[in-house]
Every structure is written in C-alpha cells, then in structure tokens.
Fold:
Amino acid sequence: KITKEQQALMKVVVEAYNRHQIPQDVAKKLLQEQYSEEENFLLLTEMATSQVQVLVEFTKNIPGFLSLNHEDQIALLKGSAVEAMFLRSAQVFSRKMPNGHTEVLEERIRKSGISEEFMTPMFNFYKSIGELHMMQEEQALLTAIAILTPDRPYVKDQQAVERLQEPMLDVLRKLCVLQHPQEPQYFARLLGRLTELRTLNHYHAEMLTSWRMNDHKFTPLLCEIWDVE
Ligand SMILES: CC(C)c1onc(-c2c(Cl)cccc2Cl)c1COc1ccc(-c2ccc3c(C(=O)O)csc3c2)cc1
Structure:
C-alpha cells in the first residue's frame, strides 16, 4: 500500500531524524552537574540550544524544505521550534533512557524556575506521548509534519508548505494502519498530540516571560528563534 516514492520519502526523513541528535557529551552533562535551580536552568538552556541546532539540520533534510521561500523557512523554524523540542524531549521520557537521563531530565525541568501551573500540562503531554509507544518512523514523520505546519505566523506561501506537509501526512496515515492494525484510531491520536502541542506553545511563551522577569539569560540562538531580548 505504501508506494515506492512514499518509502523513499520516509527513508530520507527517518535517516535525517536519527542522524541529527544532541551530541552525547552534551546529553551526558545532564547527569554530571549540580542540582541548583541556576545550574538546572543553564543545563536546560544548553540542551535547548544544542537541540535547536539539531532541529535546523533535520529540517534542511526534509524534502522540498530548502526550495521554500527563505523567509517562510525561517517562519516555519521559529513557529515550530518549541513543539519540535517538546516532541524530542518526550522521546527521552518515553525511551526510558538506560543511562538515567529520564529521571534527571525530569528533575532538572521541575527545578528550573518553571511555575507549577506549567508542570501539569507539560508532564501530561510527556505521559500522553509515552503511552503511544511511537516507532521512530512515526516520531520522525510527526516532527516533520509539525515543522511543515502551513498556518504559522508570518508564513506567506501557505500552499507551498501544504504541498510538502500533505505527502508526509499520507505516509504517516498508511504507516499507522500498517503498524497498528488493531488500533484504527492511532493516526487520529497522533494528530491529537499536534493539537496538544499548540497549547503548550502558549504555556511556553509564559515560561519565557517569567524566566526573563527573574533575569535568566538565554543564548543568542534561542533569543533569535524565540524573539527575546
Ligand atoms: C532554554 C531552556 C531553559 C528551555 O526553555 N524551554 C525549554 C523546554 C522545556 Cl523545559 C520542555 C520542552 C520544550 C522546551 Cl523548548 C527548555 C529546555 O529545552 C530542552 C530541549 C531539549 C532537551 C533534550 C532533548 C533531547 C535529549 C536527548 C536525546 O535526544 O538523546 C538526551 S538529553 C536531551 C534533552 C531538553 C530540554
């Protein structure tokens, strides 16, 4: 049922997703440094900065992305960065990292100056992703689909983005039917996670504001992608 060109598209996206990961020496820092709120914030900032670099490289490998209008490429990256990082960090939680990253990452997020009201929706999302037991093909395609969301702010040629997103949605739908035959609603549940991600964007904007009010500093790359400072 999955055509040859759909196989090829999926292969490119999955390989790019696996090739571009946070370097192990950066990820390992999660385990080493102290646990002060300050130290946690600095580590998470380093993780996010590294993750954005990884995200940019992954996005450049999405077929057709580089032929989009350049301003639209930037608008898509800025509009999807937080969602892509929620998806990626959710894999860390659902992968139950052997080297204890999961507990440590949760601990550091819980003690990094994020107010309680954001913890619940954030960790509910992590739990809902974990319950899906997504295959890596599904993770890669879902991330590409989130990045290729046509109605991000400031996107001029939305049709061009739709033309790239639709084939991804078609492949993901077919893949879900093949990999989860006993669960016909699985594809719909995956798309439901994308809706949940949109609400997390709003919480994240408020998290940034409260960190900045407490004079927390971000890296130049994060300031650029999140329009802060
Ligand atoms: C600026 C900073 C304080 C911040 O602001 N909002 C968020 C933020 C938070 Cl706190 C939650 C969700 C999204 C964002 Cl942007 C963050 C931290 O963002 C992170 C981004 C990405 C990772 C992340 C990814 C992969 C992996 C892997 C792996 O792949 O093997 C191993 S360890 C690890 C760590 C963690 C944190």
Summary: DSSP finds ten helices and no strands in the chain. Residues 186-213 form the longest helix (28 residues). The chain has a mean pLDDT of 94.
